[in-house]
Design brief:
Layout (H helix, E strand, L loop, with lengths): L1 E4 L7 H10 L8 E3 L2 E8 L2 E8 L4 E5 L5 H11 L7 H7 L3 H9 L11 H10 L5 H15 L1 E5 L2 E5 L3 H4 L4 H8 L2 H17 L1 H6 L2 H9 L6 H11 L9 H12 L5 H8 L3 H11 L27
Antiparallel strand pairs: 1-5, 2-3, 3-4, 4-5, 6-7
Length: 306
Amino acid sequence: MRHPLATQAPFSFAQTLAFVRRFPPCQGEYLIEDAALTAAVTIDGEAVPFTIRDGAPLTVEVADRAHARALVARAAHWIGADDDLRELYAAAAGDPPFLALLERMHGLHHVRFLTLEEIAVYCVMMQRTPVAMAARKKRAFLERFGKRITVRGHELRAMPTFDELVTLDPEAIGDAIGHASNGRAIAVVVRGVAELGETFLRTAPYAAARDALLEIPGVGPFSAGAILLRGLGRMDELPGMTWFAEAARVVYGASYDEAAILRRYGRQIGYWSYYVRSGVDPHVPTWKSGTRIKARVVPEPVETVE
């Protein structure tokens, strides 16, 4: 059963697929085909899959009629289908280095983490940790606790819901991911985020949502920002410019001016950061502040559907 999925132009599903293929924290978690992307979420304790298919219009294919509306909404949020890029693109017109990057990635919308549960778990794993190592922890977590389902010969593992995550033993989490202190921290963080709830974190004023997250032990400014930006698509602020600065220097070179970028992009600064980090080779370890980086900008243009 297929449902149409409206998107805000410009939108490129090819860019969506390219991003998912190269984003380390999600490697191997989805079924990626030439013009389709399949994932699974947990509903009533079971993994329930859905497939986004390219076309005019984009569609979401679901087998579960009872939860079709929720799955379509989840798919739309996941790939940022409703995001309005006009303000970002207008600001880029006076920023030649970023404009060149934007032209190569034209139509890329913000692909979030699939669920709030996923980013709540991952935000602990990525603290002071290279992305490749954090991604391995996430895969190990899903291997132990994820809900399994096989789709067209490919095994998917859905992140448990908060109702299940809050019952996990911290020692079991630590054993699964090979990091005891992370295990204890994840248990605390998922309880705190679950108590706040997705509705509050999506709709409260940004500062109120951020400050509430900062009250959770184990959630610092970067993790709070990551939950709001990468989990919920809230573009108002960045977790911290320092983490993005090294990637930005690859794009801007000697012309990089943090204050000027903040002034230019304003409430679109989160989207600016998404393009910058997405456009720099994700396999280069740019995460550590102060290191010398050797990175390349992703070169391939892909077709955009206007």
